[in-house]
Amino acid sequence: MKNSIWETAAFAISGYFSPFNSSHEEKAFQAVTKATGLPVVLGHELASKLNSVERATTATLNASLLSALQNFINAMAQSLEERGVTAPLMVVRGDGALINSDLAKNRPVETVHSGPAASAIGGRFLSQTDRAVVVDIGGTTTDIALLDQGQVTIREEGTTVGRYNTAVRAAHIHSLGLGGDSRIALNIEDQLVIGPERVTPISYLAHAYPAVAQDLKKLSLHRQKPFSMENLEYWYLLRKPAHTFLNSRTQDVLNLLENGPMAIPDILDKLDLFHPVQFGGNALLREEVIGRSGLTPTDLLHVTGEFAPWNVEAAQATASLTAHLYHEDLNTFIETVKDHISERISAEIISFITGKTLERAPHYIDPDDLGLWLFEENLYQKNPYLGSTINLKIPIIGIGAPAEILLPRVAELLHTELILPPYYQVANAVGAVAGSVISNQEAWVMEQTKTMRHVGYITLM
Questions:
Q1: Domain range holding 214?
Q2: What is the pLDDT of residues 111-134, one digit of tens each?
Q3: Among residues 203, 194, 200, which one has the least CA distance to residue 237?
Q4: Is residue 30 part of a domain?
Q5: Could you tell me which of 440, 431, 442, 426 has the C-alpha nearest to residue 90?
Q6: For FRET with 438, which of 222, 284, 290, 420 sits at 20 to 30 Å CA-CA?
Q7: H or E element at residue 320
Q8: Looking at the domain assignment, is residue 31 inside a domain?
């Protein structure tokens, strides 16, 4: 252990039946603390569930998050102090409740899903509606939550973090990779694909680098020349890497991008290469050394004038060229994208609500199932003999800047009311303030017997 301390940030200890008897965890805690002086997380302090695997997973995730959240909270506290703010610093928990920042520092895993939970609470507070589906459309994801009796519904059995099941009690949230900055592209079969990847809107990149707008304008004027989606997506330098790369071509790419963003075919042409894999392009994107920019729903809103803070010409050119590749005129293409987004969100709401009703995790509609036919018939009413109508019995509360534009069609498809409360664009922040401090305490009550005779009860707190 001592030989590997230099590469260890924290330890997690989780015993098999530690909720009943935590003495082994506590003795291990004392030994590890004495030997290393590093933070130690104990499983029984985070969860009382008897699922040892989930409890151990929860403890491990908590240990891995300690440093990041502690640094964040310390920086926030320092910033508030510099501004003369002396109020207690509170943090939103995954179930929407507020906890003291000192507790949050030691239990960062309990803040999982705190953002979507805050949005749901903010939506309820601003709309004064106790039963509704809350749909929060952000830049990267759309988060769906259910309000019942004024409270966001909770996954009592424990939420998931990535692919890991945990014992963390958190809001029941369904997230999909669809937002204002989702990548709009065509696949190899020329089918429209929106998300789940996030890219920088081309309108913003052209605003920051005017040469990008000029390149796109030239391409738009000479569209009779062959081009593809790759010509419409740009890579740009986010930061200089902290380490050197073994692949010399990787450094060549970074040197090129120091002069400004470039389309992928131009990069390959300059370096006499055939594919980004030859210079480790995916690794650069994954490490956020470089960023990717392309067409997004935000850019289409620039074209329609519904939201246009950046370069409209670049958005117009990219959208028009993409529509050309999709064999549609620009206006039809924009409506196609909006319909695609609305139908996807509608399907996810149906999946989420049915999953909630059936008390199982949200699931996708099986293409071979009758459910897909029922859903599509609700959307398009194509069958001349049999119809299907899906009615959402509670309203939708829209949260996030794109909600006003993208959710009316969703409410129409589900035959329900759309509520856009005052300040719906910042309901997430409102929810962080409107949350309550909630204290929960659990106790195990076990019958004590002696020679088959009941003699009393033992309570473990």
A1: 182-335
A2: 888 999 999 999 999 999 999 999
A3: 200
A4: no
A5: 431
A6: 420
A7: helix 312-325
A8: no
